[in-house]
Design brief:
Layout: E1 2-6, H1 17-33, E2 37-41, H2 43-48, E3 56-59, H3 64-77, E4 80-81, H4 85-90, H5 93-101, E5 111-115, E6 133-137, E7 148-151, H6 154-166, E8 171-176, E9 181-188, E10 193-198, H7 211-225, E11 229-236, E12 242-249, H8 257-277
Parallel strand pairs: 1-2, 1-3, 3-4
Antiparallel strand pairs: 5-8, 6-7, 6-8, 9-10, 9-11, 11-12
Helix pairs in contact: 1-8
């Protein structure tokens, strides 16, 4: 089997460029042990070369033109791509929220998607938000600290909106702030492997929850956007409720890179073996 890994764009790896690269390299190293011939290339190299002849493509790249090229390659050659282009696009925030809304049982904070024009934001959302709102760019996940910004009141939202508009960001998500412990989770499958940790252990209140409830919510979110290698964020509230905030394709797995690389390589081999038997 021949596998190609494509690194993530530097601009899409804010403050974690090396972590993203290291986990992909670790997965390729594991695949090599599992009798797979592997190659790695930058997104810029991918733009220039013919990638015919691979049985498996493992892309961390996220820009729209590259995903469209990958989608065309998938359709024309039948090569297995994990995560597929449509699934990565499904993690773009507006698409993700639409998928969440169509997933029974999945819990996420009240959210409205709006255009970034002044006319679309004359009034606050219909839901109450006494503790404020998180204003998030509507396409990709944050590439700078200005992409997800907290607003204590509706007056502050206008400055955020104007900054988005100045960067030609067309849509934004307005999400109610939810009090609780912020958790980061990682998974493979869904259903093969799952782990979690506090985003900031020093400030976590360690509110009680059931890990199976967290795993179930995370895996529902992953299934909603059809990603197999995933990470995300969730809130555990004082009432022991769990709200998924985000899901994304191919996170850095920085704190658990060694274990994650083993689990991801195993998943990729299993998927490839199953496809050949089908």
């Amino acid at each position: 089997m021949k596998a190609l890994g494509i690194y993530r764009e530097v601009q899409n790896s804010p403050n974690r460029e090396s972590d993203d690269a290291l986990v992909l390299k670790a997965v390729m190293d594991q695949l090599s042990i599992l009798k797979t011939e592997t190659s790695l290339m930058t997104p810029e190299d991918f733009d220039r070369v013919d990638v015919a002849g691979y049985d498996l493509i493992v892309p961390m790249c996220e820009t729209y033109p590259r995903l469209m090229r990958l989608k065309k390659i998938e359709a024309e050659t039948g090569v297995m791509v994990v995560n597929p282009s449509d699934s990565v696009l499904g993690c773009y925030r507006t698409r993700m929220l639409d998928s969440f809304a169509r997933t029974p049982g999945l819990c996420y904070p009240p959210t409205e998607v709006r255009r970034t024009t002044a006319e679309a934001n004359l009034r606050p959302p219909s839901f109450e938000a006494e503790s404020g709102w998180w204003i998030k760019r509507g396409d990709v996940h944050n590439t700078t600290t200005c992409d997800v910004v907290f607003a204590r009141n509706w007056k502050e939202v206008d400055a955020i909106r104007r900054e988005f508009e100045s960067r030609e960001i067309k849509d934004m998500a307005v999400q109610r702030h939810t009090d609780g412990d912020l958790i980061k989770f990682y998974g493979v499958g869904p259903g093969q492997w799952f782990t979690w940790f506090y985003h900031d252990p020093s400030t976590a209140r360690r509110l009680p929850f059931e890990i199976e409830d967290l795993a179930a919510q995370a895996e529902m979110a992953a299934a909603a956007v059809k990603v197999e290698i995933f990470g995300g964020d969730a809130i555990v509230t004082p009432e022991e409720r769990i709200f998924v905030i985000d899901i994304n394709s191919w996170p850095s797995f920085a704190r658990v890179r060694t274990e994650a690389s083993v689990q991801i390589a195993r998943r990729l081999r299993l998927r490839r073996t199953a496809s050949r038997k089908a």
